[in-house]
Amino acid sequence: MPAFDLDTYVERSRAVDLSAIDWALVPRHPVPPETIRTLRFMQDIESHTIIYLRSLLATRAIDDPEVATFLACWVYEETFHGIAIARFLEAAGAPVGPRPTPRGQESLGKRLEAAATAMVSKAWPDFCAVHMTWGAINELTTLTGYRRLAQVSPHPVLADLLDRIVLDESRHFFFYYRQAEIRMQRRAPARIARILVDRFWAPVGSGVQPDEELRFLATYLFAGPEGRAAARKVDDTIRRLPGFETVQLLEAWMDRHLDAHGSPASGGGRNGDRDH
Fold first, then answer.
1. Average pLDDT, integer, range 231-250
2. Residues 149, 152, 158, 160: is their CA dihedral positive or negative?
3. pLDDT value at residue 104
4. Labelling 195: which of 19, 97, 213, 248 has CA 20 to 30 A away?
């Protein structure tokens, strides 16, 4: 894989251009309720990025100049993804309402998780290897989800918006993946990163949105032959990382949480989020 050109990325980093989108055209095309539900999930997760940044600021990640520079652009671009999706929902007649729980009121479990992550980061010099790997997995699943939404719910304005967001997400994934690839050339970081991913990874949105919403999203976007193929491609890409040749990720999660027909299965799952 070629090197990531951080200088070029920083020069090109910018918010999604909302002025270039024809918002007046949105209500002229139907937006299915399933698409509205999916977009609300995605908007909430993108808007939650600032909370992840707060946790990252307490870790070793910000001590790396390249990582710190990237994260500054990353949080800016991700925040505007949430703003752009909210603008589309408003134009479609389904504006985003207030969250049931304010973002600043995290559960005790999430606060303890953030504190534990900070402690592990301080004690382990190779913490960034896990952070970069986790980020690569979550950025790839996110951009794949956007691509699937454009396929299952064709809408000219939504397709335009999602193309713009996917372009950002692809660059984010490239940075995380290349960093993970470099940092896990040594066996010890690769081994620990694999153990932590096997034990704690769950799809983007776990622990932020209810499990019911996550299972709905997985069913809507990844059920059926084309959806399964997209999920499998995510897993196959991550398996090219050192030490991850046999990792079980998105498709295995679907096998555990969705039945054979792609409907939500009973039972819950492990919590996780888009902390990358």
1. 97
2. positive
3. 58
4. 213
